[in-house]
Specification:
This protein is of the alpha/beta class. It contains 7 helices and 5 strands. Strands 4-3-5 form a 3-stranded parallel beta sheet. The chain has a two-stranded antiparallel ribbon with strand order 1-2. Keywords: DNA-binding, Transcription, Transcription regulation.
Length: about 220
């Protein structure tokens, strides 16, 4: 059974006439007849019966018809979706990004992208998460592109720098270090320290910086 046989079956069922169906399909009547016979042979039942010059679906053909039409409709939708995704001027991009980029950076990028000629009809689906969550979504093909922190233990992923952000130390009002213009990592050792969660790409960076400075905050 192949796609052409199913298409022939559908058109013949709708026209109820070999000549009309053949003309609509741009094939010869013998070719159409042979395709239907092969389909019936594979199915093991007669799908059509002849009455005078016209043909009609048998009870088996009537049972088979809705399944074929539904399958062809879904296949057509699938082809249309694939064509839309592969068109350079139209499609949908699944974009993932870390939470901190959702306030200004990503909205500005999307606005600039849509303002570029030829990109107006491209749509986006957005996913937010931590670096590890986003990398997992990329590997599972749930996202097409992600904006996250660079990590060293992902050899399958290519990282390209697009944005640089300053990493700063935040302390509460009245803290002993609050009036300092800068502090060394060693100087934060006596104080309770809140780090990024482990699934964040920033966590690994902070750990590396503290290790280099031989700093061990509480």
């Amino acid at each position: 059974m192949n796609l052409k046989q199913l298409q022939y079956f559908t058109v013949l069922a709708e026209t109820e006439h070999y000549r009309k169906a053949a003309e609509q399909l741009y094939v010869t009547e013998p070719s159409l007849n042979r395709a239907i016979r092969d389909l019936e042979k594979e199915m093991g039942v007669h799908l059509f019966e002849k009455r005078g010059r016209n043909i009609f679906l048998t009870k088996y053909g009537k049972m088979f018809y809705p399944y074929v039409t539904k399958s062809l409709e879904e296949l057509t939708k699938g082809v249309q979706v694939m064509k839309a995704y592969t068109r350079p001027d139209k499609g949908r991009i699944n974009l993932g990004f870390v939470y901190t980029m959702g306030y200004t950076i990503v909205p500005e990028m999307i606005t600039q992208f849509h303002n570029t000629e030829g990109n107006e009809e491209i749509e986006f689906d957005f996913t937010q998460g931590t670096t590890r969550e986003l990398i997992r979504s990329l590997k599972e093909e749930k996202t097409d592109i992600i904006f996250c922190s660079s990590v060293v233990d992902e050899p399958e992923i290519m990282f390209y720098p697009i944005v640089e952000e300053r990493l700063v130390l935040v302390v509460p009002k009245g803290h002993p270090l609050g009036k300092r213009a800068s502090v060394s990592l060693k100087e934060i050792e006596p104080y309770p320290f809140i780090d990024f969660q482990q699934s964040s790409g920033m966590h690994a960076m902070v750990v590396e910086l503290l290790t280099r400075a031989d700093a061990h905050p509480r």
